[in-house]
Amino acid sequence: MQIENAVVLVTGGNRGLGRAIAAEAVARGARKVYAAARDPRTVTNPDVVPLALDVTDPESVAEAARVASDVTVLVNNAASLVNADFLDSDVEEVRREFETNFYGPLRLTRAFVPSIIDNGGGHVLNINSALSWLGISGSYSASKAALWSMTNSLRLQLLPRGVGVTGLHVGYIDTDMSAHVDAPKISPEDVARQAIDGIEAGAFEVLADETSRRVRGGLSASVDAMYPQLGAA
Ligand code: NDP
């Protein structure tokens, strides 16, 4: 599908990668771009439509789906990184991470797919991470692994109904989320371009950078160098 003429909704569209994807969609000629945010006043791009949305709140998701019933491309970008250690964290902490990173995209997909189909078909892009294959971030990695699996299932279910589903995996993006990480990073703008390219190509999976390609392909010397804690694994 072409982004030109699409109506795009990006969750967490106020900052980081979400803001870059919303801006890229505008630059590529999307008919309308909703930048969804918990606080819509934090959406500063004048070319997008701010929309209030907390992905962990079913009523907020239902209201967003009602207001933005013209959406044809849903980008599940919003996420949180608590980096819980499974042995140290309580189960509630892990559950909260899944609420945002897994149940959020699930809620959004269930709420928006019926109207995407009614609007003539479209696309769901789930923003994932190389960490879904590399369990160095506890509940974050686990929630992204679950999102990866859901992406694969939805793709099979939705393709016959005219809705493509893509998972986009990245090593580290230069945003607030990775500010504490000392590793090579890719710019949000680069990832945003690849994200929209992936939607237009109907790609099953986009591996945005060298880290995600190498981690996906199996651990390698360069991944070992980036993650010394893996040692000789
Ligand atoms: P940021 O931490 O910079 O931004 C996170 C975004 O998610 C913010 O817009 C935040 O909104 C939003 N958000 C968090 N919780 C909720 C919620 N309950 N409801 C609605 N919005 C919420 O992260 P990035 O931009 O780096 O991350 C974007 C995506 O990229 C995520 O899916 C992340 O997992 C993925 N990713 C990031 C990598 C990185 O290195 N940064 C690497 C690989 C993947 P608010 O402003 O209200 O907090």
UniProtKB/TrEMBL annotation:
Keyword Lyase: no
Residues in Ketoreductase domain copies: 6-171
Pfam family, one: adh_short
Keywords recorded for this protein, A-Z: Oxidoreductase
Entry keyword annotation includes Oxidoreductase: yes
InterPro entries per UniProt: KR_dom, NAD(P)-bd_dom_sf, Sc_DH/Rdtase_CS, SDR_fam
Family the entry assigns: Belongs to the short-chain dehydrogenases/reductases (SDR) family.
Protein name: SDR family oxidoreductase
Record organism: Plantactinospora alkalitolerans
